[in-house]
Specification:
30% helix; two-stranded antiparallel ribbon; disordered N terminus; activator; 7 strands; 5 helices; alpha+beta; Nuclear Transport Factor 2, Chain: A; Mediator_Med6_sf; elongated
């Protein structure tokens, strides 16, 4: 089996960033035949023609491995085929390569595609059986039964909905209770206490203390004689001579 058809070649890619802006159908084969391209076989007939500077039409007259441009979809997609020529009209395809936005990939062959799909299918089936086995329960008294997580969630949801739908009382009960309450309110009317208005607390401003000075006026009595008054000398009365 050719080394390009190995499984490792399907997981690699190659590109030359300097050549990508100039890529077109006329130079795409020169881009693919770069020496750094791991998908290109340097012993092919294309390399011989390139070294001898011959036309690509000479490939029809040669025998061996060659590369041809199979399909183009400008400016993004180019398909290159690797084939073995055994005669002018007899070729055997070996591999296909597609170039998308300048990046070269190897197209998987039919066996690789079938193998990959089968592996994915078997992996999904195994995970499905493992999950189904986890839902299977067994007890000696009950036997086998299935217990699904979604079923538990749906049961919980249904129970919540039932609780919401349940009415705490019937219409008859509500009307009967309203009637009894109306009769009781007629017999014993409620007493409404008027709301008390909040009293405003006024801050008392301290008044300045006024000092009253009492003036006492002493009135002297006429009988009373003032103290420390100098008495005049007694008057001398003339003596009468008989």
């Amino acid at each position: 089996m050719d080394k390009d058809l190995s499984a490792g070649a399907l997981g690699i890619s190659w590109h030359d960033s300097t050549f990508i802006p100039l890529l077109n159908p006329s130079n795409v084969m020169d881009y693919f035949s770069e020496r750094s391209n791991p998908f290109y076989d340097h012993t092919c007939n294309n390399e011989i023609i390139k070294m001898q500077r011959l036309s690509l039409d000479q490939l029809n007259n040669m025998i061996g491995v060659e590369y041809i441009l199979l399909h183009t979809q400008e400016p993004i997609l180019y398909v290159v085929r690797k084939q073995e020529r055994n005669g002018p009209n007899h070729v055997v395809p070996l591999a296909d390569y597609y170039i998308i936005a300048g990046v070269v990939y190897q197209a998987p062959d039919l066996a690789s595609v079938i193998n990959s799909r089968l592996l994915n299918t078997l992996s999904n089936l195994k995970s499905a059986f493992d999950e189904a086995q986890s839902f299977s329960k067994y007890h000696p008294s009950k036997g086998y039964w299935w217990e699904f997580k979604d079923q538990e969630a749906s049961d919980k949801k249904e129970s919540k909905e039932k609780k919401k739908k349940e009415v705490p009382s019937s219409m008859f009960q509500r009307q009967r209770v309203d009637l009894l309450l109306g009769e009781l309110s007629k017999k014993f009317p409620p007493k409404f206490i008027p709301p008390t208005q909040p009293t405003e607390v006024k801050e008392e401003v301290p008044k300045p203390e006024t000092v009253t000075v009492k003036q006492e006026i002493k009135q002297e009595k006429p009988d009373e004689k003032p103290a420390n008054v100098i008495k005049p000398p007694p008057e001398k009365k003339p003596k009468l001579i008989r």
